[in-house]
Every structure is written in structure tokens, then in C-alpha cells.
Amino acid sequence: MRIIAFDPGGTTGVAIYDTDTEREWTRFELGPKEHHAALWALLAEEVHIVYETFDYQRRDVEFGVSLELISREYIGIIKLHREYLEEGGVYVELHPQKPAQRMFWTDEKLKKLGLWVSSEHERDATRHLLYHLCFTLNDKKYLYALQP
Questions:
Q1: Domains: count for the chain
Q2: Distance CA 39, CA 28 (A)
Q3: Is residue 45 pLDDT above 60, yes or no?
Q4: ∠ at Cα 98 (2, 73), nearest 5°?
Q5: 103-114, pLDDT tens digit by residue?
Q6: What is the average pLDDT value for the chain, to the nearest integer?
Q7: According to the model, what pLDDT value does residue 148 have?
Q8: What is the pLDDT of residue 55?
Q9: How many CB atoms lie within 10 A of CB 93?
């Protein structure tokens, strides 16, 4: 099964992994320019999708509230993709995750697994995909790999 995970935002992190072949991870970013069409094209026939939800957080209120909603637009593209394929009879699994769910997979853990990359957004998409593999699909190999 091929799984694709997204950390949507001004720059969208993407992580792709195939559980059947266990081939090397594919990770990259879309953006920072608007990338609605690129996201739509990337989704193509994807049916197992993990993505980070948008939670409004009032950070740095003392500097003024800056609310960036582009993440919601990209999540809308993902949901439109599901609706489009399901109208054609193809079932699409969407797995939304809260931002906090990625926190289990620290930089240290990613480094130990050889999955650390310099891009924060690619790392976050990787964290979401790992969380899904280990705690939703119950594939523990990455957890076992962390043991001494």
C-alpha cells in the first residue's frame, strides 16, 4: 500500500512510502508559491492519505495576530480529491492528524532511523506518516528500530 502524507501550508511537506515494497522514502516540498494545481496533480490516484489538520493557534499575540489560512485551502484540495474519486467508485482513506501527533517523532528519533532531512516541512510530513504507520496501522518496525 502506498501512503502519502502532507504537512500543508505556505510550503507543503510531502512524504511518500510504499508498505509493500518498503522502498526508500520519497520526500519533498511544494511551494512556497501557491501550489493548488501541483497538489491536485500529485494526488492523481492516491487513495491512502495522511494530512495535518489546521488548528488556529494564537502565537506571538504581542506582535499582532497573523492568521494564515492557506493550509485550509490545501486541505480542501485533498478533500475534493477524495470526493472526486469516490464519485467514480474509488474509496479514498483520509487520515487527518492533529499537529501534536507528529511530536512523538523527535529529530533525534528521525536521525536514529536515518530519516532526518533538513527541510522542516518534509520532516513534519515524515513524522505524520510514521505516526500513521506505527499507531494507526500497527506496524512497529520503526519503533523496534529505536530500541537499543
A1: 1
A2: 12
A3: yes
A4: 75
A5: 999 999 999 999
A6: 91
A7: 85
A8: 73
A9: 13
Q: What Rg do the C-alpha atoms of the chain give, in angstroms?
A: 16
Q: Would you state the torsion angle of the CA atoms of residues 143, 47, 120, 101, taken in this order, to the nearest 10 degrees?
A: -50
Name 117's Cβ contacts closer than 8 Å, sequence gap at least 6. Answer: 27, 123, 126
* Over residues 51-62, mean pLDDT: 72
The CATH number for 67's domain is 3.30.420.10
- Provide the pLDDT confidence category of residue 68 given band limits of 50, 70 and 90: low
Structural domain boundaries, residue 100: 2-145
Closest CA relative to residue 53, chosen from 35, 34, 72, 30: 72
Instruction: List, as one string, the DSSP characters of the chain.
Output: -EEEEEE-SSSEEEEEEETTT-PPPEEEEE-SS--HHHHHHHHTT--EEEEEPP-----SGGG------HHHHHHHHHHHHHHHHHHTT---EEEEE-GGGGGGS-HHHHHHHT---S-HHHHHHHHHHHHIIIIIS---HHHHHT--
For residue 53, give the C-alpha cell. 489538520
